[in-house]
UniProtKB/TrEMBL annotation:
GO MF annotation list: hydrolase activity
Organism of origin: Terriglobus aquaticus
Keyword terms: Hydrolase
Domain AB hydrolase-1: 17-243
Superkingdom classification of source: Bacteria
Protein name per Swiss-Prot or TrEMBL: Alpha/beta fold hydrolase
Length: 252
């Protein structure tokens, strides 16, 4: 099973399962966890190839789904709200199309769209080598922020990029971003919410409105557009995101 960190009271329900973006780790959720752990249980996991799971393999959307289901099974029968950021958003939507009984909600934070990301070959080539040098990792990280983060947050984000495996950094831009699940996932079977940064250049708000929001809206959910925010929402807006998660937990 994927390594994870367990925070908050173990009997608090529903609990949050937090999944990170491409190049990140469980540490991207530290700010959100700090704000919620007094009242909620939060599980922050590392996906294969990243963080404390850097030595693990299996990077396809199918492989990610299998591991997400494994954690959900481990947590059963406790009700779980799945919170996924960017890369893991695509896999989370696939899981939510045929959810296990203890999955009660889905929060998509700047998710990778089901139909694939409209990225040119030059951008993919740049993305796949972002973990090879300190300078490249720093630039990759800067691209995810609307404004310069604190030195501490920036260092954590850069370290996570550099400790990611080469195999994972090749697999997602080469294959994962191209996988098209839109024909296989036509509805989500749990209530969902979409959170998007107004200044996200990686997956822009208009793409989210056209591709992801219809699925979310069909569950009775909505889109939160965060002003003056880019792609790395858990780092940039932990307070706003924590408030959104807490309100959503009350709804489900």
């Amino acid at each position: 099973m994927l390594p994870f960190r367990d925070h908050g009271p173990t009997d608090a329900q529903p609990l949050f399962l937090l999944l990170h973006f491409f190049g990140g780790s469980h540490r991207e959720w530290d700010g959100v966890v700090a704000l919620l752990q007094d009242r909620h249980r939060l599980i922050a996991a590392d996906m294969a190839g990243f963080g404390e799971a850097a030595s693990l393999e299996g990077f396809s959307v199918d492989a990610m789904c299998s591991r997400i289901r494994g954690i959900l099974s481990y947590l059963a029968p406790a009700p779980v709200i799945l919170v996924s950021h960017s890369m893991t958003g695509k896999a989370a939507m696939v899981v939510a199309a045929q959810p296990p009984s203890n999955l009660v909600g889905l929060v998509l934070v700047a998710p990778s769209p089901l139909a694939g990301e409209p990225m040119d070959d030059a951008a993919r080539a740049e993305m796949r080598i972002a973990n090879t040098t300190r300078a490249r990792a720093e630039q990759f990280t800067r691209n995810g922020f609307a404004h310069a983060p604190s030195a501490e947050i920036f260092e954590i984000a850069v370290e996570d990029v550099l400790r990611s495996s080469d195999a994972a950094f090749h697999a997602w831009p080469d294959d994962g971003t191209r996988e098209d699940w839109s024909g296989r996932v036509t509805s989500l079977q749990v209530k969902a919410l979409l959170v998007v940064g107004e200044k996200d250049k990686a997956i822009d708000p208009e793409l989210q409105r056209s591709q992801t929001l219809p699925l979310v809206a069909a569950t009775g959910g909505r889109m939160h557009l965060l002003p003056d925010t880019a792609h790395l929402i858990p780092y940039e807006q932990p307070e706003q995101l924590a408030n959104i998660l807490e309100e959503f937990a009350r709804e489900v």
